[in-house]
Amino acid sequence: MFLINDLIALLAANLILSQALGTSTLFIAAGSRKNLVATAGVITLFTTIGSAASFFIDLAVPSSVSDLRLLFYTLVIAFLYVALLIIVYKFGSRWFEDMRKYIHVSAFNCAVMGTLFTINKRADADSALSGFGGYVSAGFEAGIGFVIAAIILTAAYRKLNSRKVPAAFRGFPAMLVYLGIISMAVYSLK
Amino acid sequence: MNNRKKLLFGGVLGDNIVLSGLMVISPVIICGDTLKNAEALIYAFSAITFLSVLISSFVPRKLPYTAKIIIYAVISSLVYIPVRLAASEFYPESIERIGIYYPLLAVNSLIVFQTEAKFYRMKKADMIISLLSCILGFDLVMLITGFLRELFAYGTINSKIVDINTVINGLAQPFGGFIFLGLMCGVYRYIRGMVSKNNNEVRSGTDVSDK
């Protein structure tokens, strides 16, 4: 029962299905199993570590200069971006060529940046989420939410791209409508 | 001249960044439910994207790819600050509603990735025309989405009540945005397919007559 409750909570708080954050990246991830694992892994890393760093930024930046937050978040993601490329190059040079495209795609996109802003907004509204642990777990949850949405899309990916779908709606348009229907189901869980 | 014309209309009709490239779709899906929101987003997107790409075009091309991407993102984050300050004067209500999607416009893939893949491979004049065309493409989609979703979701146009029989509240929700954009993409592709088919027929006709 707890597991079902957790799953419903994860779905209801899913940033893609409820806020459309990172939808284009999701389409890349759903293309193949390899894309799914690599993109989801890198996005989860970015959202989790990025959220931890954003905790300190939110502590340091007063609300009177909140417009500067985007700049600081960008710098944090830039640092993570370079660090991840160096780590993969040093310790996994065999996979570097394969992995770097996923790192490039995942660094500056709505899924990652949107997560940081959403967590900040939630922490402002609910003090229980404003601690370091709250930030990190929310970042990790956002990554898991991306994985769940990618798996849901992967399940129908081949059919939505098949010749049975009219040419004009084949691919992206059909996938958007499909995500809309899933999003409607998730909306009813709230 | 012909090439310039192609560049000018390419981003609006031929290769629309939202309907064809699926870039910057989150604000369209979530915030494109009223004309007022659409107006505020159009202002922000146009100002941030145009200024950021223009300033970024002075970044040395010899720098490594990663460094350039980071510099583009930092430049757009800096451009965002004055644009946001000006927006809070002109669209104070819309900014509240748009919320986190406002800063997200500054890290859109048109600025961060397309600059490198598309714009900086062109001559400066061509780049500006193509950029303006891409921005116009987004603006047009945003306007149409805002107009139609407001009309059918709330029964209003620019907050003025319109006599309309069918109101579909769900269109204002995120799922309504997904479905609406999906349908719009399909219709756009269908029209584009028809136009290119006609062009091919005309071209093949000319080929025959030339022979």
TrEMBL record, chain A:
<feature type="transmembrane region" description="Helical">
    <location>
        <begin position="36"/>
        <end position="57"/>
    </location>
</feature>
<keyword id="KW-0813">Transport</keyword>
<dbReference type="InterPro" id="IPR003667">
    <property type="entry name" value="NqrDE/RnfAE"/>
</dbReference>
<dbReference type="Pfam" id="PF02508">
    <property type="entry name" value="Rnf-Nqr"/>
</dbReference>
<protein>
    <recommendedName>
        <fullName>Electron transport complex protein RnfA</fullName>
    </recommendedName>
</protein>
<keyword id="KW-1133">Transmembrane helix</keyword>
<keyword id="KW-0812">Transmembrane</keyword>
<feature type="transmembrane region" description="Helical">
    <location>
        <begin position="69"/>
        <end position="89"/>
    </location>
</feature>
<feature type="transmembrane region" description="Helical">
    <location>
        <begin position="6"/>
        <end position="29"/>
    </location>
</feature>
<feature type="transmembrane region" description="Helical">
    <location>
        <begin position="101"/>
        <end position="120"/>
    </location>
</feature>
<dbReference type="GO" id="GO:0012505">
    <property type="term" value="C:endomembrane system"/>
</dbReference>
<dbReference type="InterPro" id="IPR050133">
    <property type="entry name" value="NqrDE/RnfAE_oxidrdctase"/>
</dbReference>
<feature type="transmembrane region" description="Helical">
    <location>
        <begin position="132"/>
        <end position="157"/>
    </location>
</feature>
<dbReference type="GO" id="GO:0005886">
    <property type="term" value="C:plasma membrane"/>
</dbReference>
<keyword id="KW-0472">Membrane</keyword>
<feature type="transmembrane region" description="Helical">
    <location>
        <begin position="169"/>
        <end position="189"/>
    </location>
</feature>
<keyword id="KW-1278">Translocase</keyword>
From TrEMBL, chain B:
<feature type="transmembrane region" description="Helical">
    <location>
        <begin position="168"/>
        <end position="191"/>
    </location>
</feature>
<keyword id="KW-0812">Transmembrane</keyword>
<keyword id="KW-0472">Membrane</keyword>
<feature type="transmembrane region" description="Helical">
    <location>
        <begin position="42"/>
        <end position="60"/>
    </location>
</feature>
<keyword id="KW-1278">Translocase</keyword>
<protein>
    <recommendedName>
        <fullName>Electron transporter RnfE</fullName>
    </recommendedName>
</protein>
<keyword id="KW-1133">Transmembrane helix</keyword>
<dbReference type="InterPro" id="IPR003667">
    <property type="entry name" value="NqrDE/RnfAE"/>
</dbReference>
<feature type="transmembrane region" description="Helical">
    <location>
        <begin position="7"/>
        <end position="30"/>
    </location>
</feature>
<feature type="transmembrane region" description="Helical">
    <location>
        <begin position="69"/>
        <end position="87"/>
    </location>
</feature>
<dbReference type="GO" id="GO:0012505">
    <property type="term" value="C:endomembrane system"/>
</dbReference>
<dbReference type="GO" id="GO:0005886">
    <property type="term" value="C:plasma membrane"/>
</dbReference>
<dbReference type="Pfam" id="PF02508">
    <property type="entry name" value="Rnf-Nqr"/>
</dbReference>
<keyword id="KW-0813">Transport</keyword>
<feature type="transmembrane region" description="Helical">
    <location>
        <begin position="127"/>
        <end position="148"/>
    </location>
</feature>
<feature type="transmembrane region" description="Helical">
    <location>
        <begin position="99"/>
        <end position="115"/>
    </location>
</feature>
